[in-house]
């Protein structure tokens, strides 16, 4: 309970108006559609969209009305993912999907990708999902090829930074007052893991990036968050445990929910974070791991 003196001081200051934000009101969060997670009219770019998790996120965003560009190194694989997501798509569809090439280790390729998507839809990208990533598993002193180390950092961390820069530049210039950046991280980025030092370093770097960008662009209505995925039943995980299925069972027993996650588990959170209803959530590292880190 408040003491009488504390309550009196609070009561005397309650009527003091809050300071206005330095930015124009139009740059603040849009109140339109805050009661719904519909993404009608929003343009989304999912990099790594041909992978298991990225493809499911693209599907989820599209089902909520967003127009989605599925990007990756192989345009052929991206086009295939688009066909799987919406085999009956027509140019008159409410949400149009298309595949586009994007090599996140090449800043020119990222710029070209962003420009291509915005030219296709004639609107700025308001939702960016960085779902790309590669794994480098080995003891550090056993890694004799520097290329593996450099590629992992370039793809998982530097590529994410460059993609954020390209989209944020365009988004700030457009001044729509709405933006969502969703990075797909890994529980290994928080816990570390023997034989995964380089991969862990590349994913833990997303934590600092997410929090710093959230501080830089929050006043413009742009939120930045990272989904820290646990063990997800995806192509990457299946490959990792192909040679040691017993290890997979051991890890499953450590998960309180008792199973590996699915790409849909990650996509459900991504769709929420992309929506207007998530407008007060930014700079967060949110785990989707079945309770593994408890």
A few lines on this structure:
With 294 residues, the protein is α/β, with parallel strands linked by helices. The chain has helices at 4-13, 52-63, 75-85, 107-121, 146-174, 188-191, 197-217, 235-240, 245-254, 263-274; strands at 43-47, 67-72, 97-101, 127-130, 179-186, 222-229, 285-288.
How would you describe the overall organization of this protein?
By secondary structure, this protein is α/β, with parallel strands linked by helices. The chain is built from ten helices and seven strands. The protein has helices at 4-13, 52-63, 75-85, 107-121, 146-174, 188-191, 197-217, 235-240, 245-254, 263-274; strands at residues 43-47, 67-72, 97-101, 127-130, 179-186, 222-229, 285-288. A seven-stranded parallel sheet has the order 3-2-1-4-5-6-7, with helices on both faces. Helix 5 runs parallel beside helix 7. The longest helix has 29 residues, at 146-174. It is globular.
Gyration radius from CA atoms, angstroms: 21 Å
Order of helices and strands: HEHEHEHEHEHHEHHHE
How many helical stretches?
10
Strand order of the largest sheet: 3-2-1-4-5-6-7
Q: How many beta-strand segments?
A: 7
Stretches with pLDDT under 50, minimum 5 residues: 5-36
List the helices and strands and how they pair.
Layout: H1 4-13, E1 43-47, H2 52-63, E2 67-72, H3 75-85, E3 97-101, H4 107-121, E4 127-130, H5 146-174, E5 179-186, H6 188-191, H7 197-217, E6 222-229, H8 235-240, H9 245-254, H10 263-274, E7 285-288
Parallel strand pairs: 1-2, 1-4, 2-3, 4-5, 5-6, 6-7
